[in-house]
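Incident log, support desk, overnight shift.

02:14 A customer reports that sequence design results differ from what the structure should imply. Their input is reproduced verbatim below. On-call engineer (initials T.W.) acknowledged and began investigating.
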C-alpha cells in the first residue's frame, strides 16, 4: 500500500510539472495508469483519472474555473 501511495504522489508531482502555471487541458484515461504524459504534440495532459484526482486533492494543481485547464497554483 505504501508503494501505491508513493506512485500517486509521484504522479501528482509529474502532473504539476507538465501543466505548469500556464495550464493545460486534461484528458483523463483509465488506460494511462500508471503513466502521466502529454499527447504527441505536448498540448494535452493524458493521465489516469485517479492520478488527476490525487493531484487536485493534494493541491499539486488546481482546475482553472474559466478554462477548465489544470495548472499549478500561482501562489505556490
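02:41 Re-run completed on a clean worker. Output:
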Amino acid at each position: 500500500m505504501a508503494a501505491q501511495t508513493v506512485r500517486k504522489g509521484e504522479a501528482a508531482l509529474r502532473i504539476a510539472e507538465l501543466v505548469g502555471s500556464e495550464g493545460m487541458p486534461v484528458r483523463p484515461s483509465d488506460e494511462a495508469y500508471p503513466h502521466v504524459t502529454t499527447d504527441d504534440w505536448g498540448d494535452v495532459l493524458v493521465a489516469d483519472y485517479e492520478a488527476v484526482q490525487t493531484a487536485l486533492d493534494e493541491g499539486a494543481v488546481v482546475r482553472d474555473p474559466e478554462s477548465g485547464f489544470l495548472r499549478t497554483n500561482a501562489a505556490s
